[in-house]
Write a structure and sequence with these properties.
With 105 residues, this protein is an all-beta fold. The protein has one domain: 3-layer Sandwich (Rieske Iron-sulfur Protein), CATH 2.102.10. It contains no helices and 10 strands. Bound molecules: FE2/S2 (inorganic) cluster (FES).
């Protein structure tokens, strides 16, 4: 498993989320309450960007809404809440001081 720096806490100050490409992975880093998490920024529907919009609350659940066809994904599990069988990949991350690292395998 590859541990790579993806950004810093400063990158989350403006929008509470940012995305970066690392190798072939487009990874979205975001704040989930007090936690920092990471998820694929590539929609499993047709590849649209997941992090274009900010997180919003739908039916009491925080979700990402894909830019292209508006499918929504639970920020916690990555499961699509509007279309069964679609799931976004989650990534493990680690915060060390001000730096954010992601694990890619
Ligand atoms: S590509 Fe994301 S909803 Fe279609």
């Amino acid at each position: 498993m590859l541990k790579t720096k993806i950004g810093s806490l400063d990158d989350l100050k403006k929008n509470s989320q940012f995305s970066r490409w690392i190798n072939d992975h487009d990874i979205l880093v975001y704040k989930n309450g007090g936690k920092i998490e990471a998820i694929s920024n590539i929609c499993p529907h047709f590849g649209g960007p997941i992090g274009y919009h900010d997180i919003k609350i739908v039916n009491n659940k925080p979700v990402f809404t894909c830019l292209w066809h508006n499918l929504q994904f639970c920020i916690k599990s990555g499961e699509c809440t509007t279309h069964s069988n679609l799931v976004l990949r989650k990534y493990d991350i680690e915060v060390e001081g001000q730096e954010i690292f992601v694990y890619i395998n």
